[in-house]
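Target chain:
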Amino acid sequence: MKLYDGGRAPNPRRVSIYLAEKGIDVPREVVDMGALQHRSDAVSTLNPLQRLPVLELDDGTAITETIAICRYFEELHPEPALFGTGALEKAQIEMWQRRVEFGLLLQVANVFRHSHPAMVEWEKPQLAEFADANRPKVEAFCRFLNAELADREFIVGGAFSVADITALVGLDFMKPARLAIPDDCEHLSAYHDRLRARPSANA
């Protein structure tokens, strides 16, 4: 088994945080995405979409997509249960994971990819107008999440989950995208501080 890892890029980082929370050590092949190594023949053979992370199993099977990789390990190592236990909690975590992924992380990525000079070779065409259109969406979702976090420690009740991993990465990704949590989102800021204090945040 080997994990093709893109380092601090958001999706590879989500898997790294997940594995750190689980205490799972997986051999890694470091791929320099800044040098566009994710477009190499080695990665392209495993994932024709040329995206990371990629988990290559011992029999050569390739698993791509962040949540699919995490779910694979969840089946092998069910504790701690980062996808929840019981029908209701599992559904709630799935709901929030998707909300945060599409409402926060994707919108932040759109701003970054369509405004940062380093992404010129990635996004063709790079559309400044599209970045501008996504900035208010990020702010609106931050305020939505701030209200939800007024009375709970984590996104789904009192337990850390994969939804919180996605939120942490999305909130951290705001800095290189030149975005900031609105000043009036004190609950979201406190939540972000709690997540950043976890040892896995450095994975």
In short: The first helix runs from residue 10 to 22. The CA atoms of residues 102 and 108 lie 10 Å apart. The radius of gyration is 17 Å. The chain has a mean pLDDT of 96.
